[in-house]
Amino acid sequence: MAPLDPHSFTDSDHPLTTHISLSLYFDFPSSIIHGSALLSLPTPHSGPIFLDTRSLSITSVIDHDTKSPLPFSLSTDIDHIKGQNLTVTLSNHTKFLIIFTTTPESSALQWLSPPQTFNKSHPFVYTQCQSIHARSVFPCQDTPAARIRYSARLNFPSQLSSVMSARHHGRRSPAAGDVAMACEDSVWCAEGRVVEEFEMEQPIPPYLFAFAVGEIGFREVGPRTRVYAEAAPTVLDSAAREFAGTEEMIKVGERLFGKYDWERFDLLVLPPSFPYGGMENPRMTFLTPTVIKGDETGAQVVAHELAHSWTGNLITNKTNDHFWLNEGFTTYAERRIVEEVQGKDTAALNIGIGWRGLVEEMVRFKDNMEFTKLKTNQEGVDPDDVYSQVPYEKGFQFIWRIEREVGRAAFDEFLKKYIATFKFQSIDTDMFLKFLIENIPGIETKIDLKLWTEGTGIPADAMEPVSNIYSSIVSLSNEFKLGRMPREDEVANWRGQEWELYLENLPKTVEASQVSALDARYSLSESKDYEVKVAFLQLAVSSRCRDYYTEVEKTLKDVGRMKYLRPLYSSLVQGVGNEEDKTFAKRVFLETRDCYHPIAQGVVESILSKHV
Ligand code: BES
Ligand code: ZN
Prior knowledge:
The protein is of the alpha+beta class. It contains 21 helices and 19 strands.
């Protein structure tokens, strides 16, 4: 009896679920889902089996064949990270059915009331399950070490439609059988409602389970790509324009990493409260609307989520301790795609922005260097609290270092073989290293693999990008420190990424007058590009230039992407003697909390509680 993942109650002696069949009845007025989950094991099991749950109430557990109840218990103590252990006692069972309901506290789910949506006439709900929130939607062995296939029947009001990280099988009227499964009372279920069915035939880690239900429309943007969004022509048209180049990127990905194994690559643009830039849900990538800005930069986020189709979704980190295997590889793969479709300069800028981010994280974790390692020990740690650039950018640097050692051609061969060897498996850092040493003999004498994967900080053989544009922007940032602002002719060709790099290379605090002077010339606080706007507002806040606080408040209220919330809230509350800013941050959060996704609520709460 031993847990196999620090973030899960799953026991290494128990069989891992291979299939889950879900029936979900969406009750929008109450913000809850009545559900049933039929779990299948690979072999009959007798004795207890542990499942993860969070904020779920369990009604009953039923023997699939005899329909008789099975004994179960839900732990009374609530682990603040893992949630509650649901123990079901089986006697030679391979299938058992759990009847449950979610609660409004279920951390994966954001329920938007009609006024919170674009058209303001229908509600909307969506999931964000990574890293450990799937357990708040249905009971499961919520560890990426377990790979499951699933089918799902979603029952919701007939004015709405749905998408999932799965193949869509059709839309029909509710039938007596499927209704009864979920909510027992078939009368109130059938009226004005519809059922949509889905099937995910490939085995995926539970964190890739996803759905969205709302007034959703779509546009075709390529032979295997549609973009879905809230059904408003302006939203759909601009999304379709932004992502027109997706098929080209899929082709580049296939050339570099092997066949695209998920059949379709559809995109869903979510409401502005979506807490991430993108989430690689298989067949249906979820995206923040902030990536739609009418230039080509949205493609970077799409390139990243697409790259996960190989690194992350085909080969998955076994536990969150090895999260760098997902994000480091994907950041590398993303930049290879970007290099092909947007050129070397753009790729170099991205590497440079990433480098800056990595250096910053070393400061953030200076008292807790564990989280500057690639392979981490997250026992007792909430992955949402330690989310950082380290797995992305130090992971990228490690892969890039290997590429430099062996040369690109040989590395590309290695990468293809790595993906072909481990696809549809969940692996850890040691498995990767073993494969690396076997396939590139002698690599361990050239690169200190242990230092890279187990050491803290940034190894000396990491590297900034070599590029004229990158160096010239960094030297302009350095000149700002001496009081010189860039001239119009120097910034004439700058797009968002150049400005982002420039701003991120400035000192954390400058004179308030310098902040205003920069904005007076270049209107950065009004940028349509949130990366630029937030980098500027962060500089304004940490320089205590209060002219911009109205804009800060507006930004915190308009978007719920944690990449923006984290730096703005953090710079407001950090330091001493800024009581006024702390009060401001608390007030804005109090007024906005209900508009954030529960994961973002938790993250902001933890930032505020550390400093206020
Ligand atoms: N899988 C991540 C998002 C994630 C990570 C969600 C950990 C929950 C826990 C996704 O692929 C990602 O990295 N998104 C980035 C995109 C960026 C690197 C282009 C983001 O959201 O900023
Ligand atoms: Zn990612």
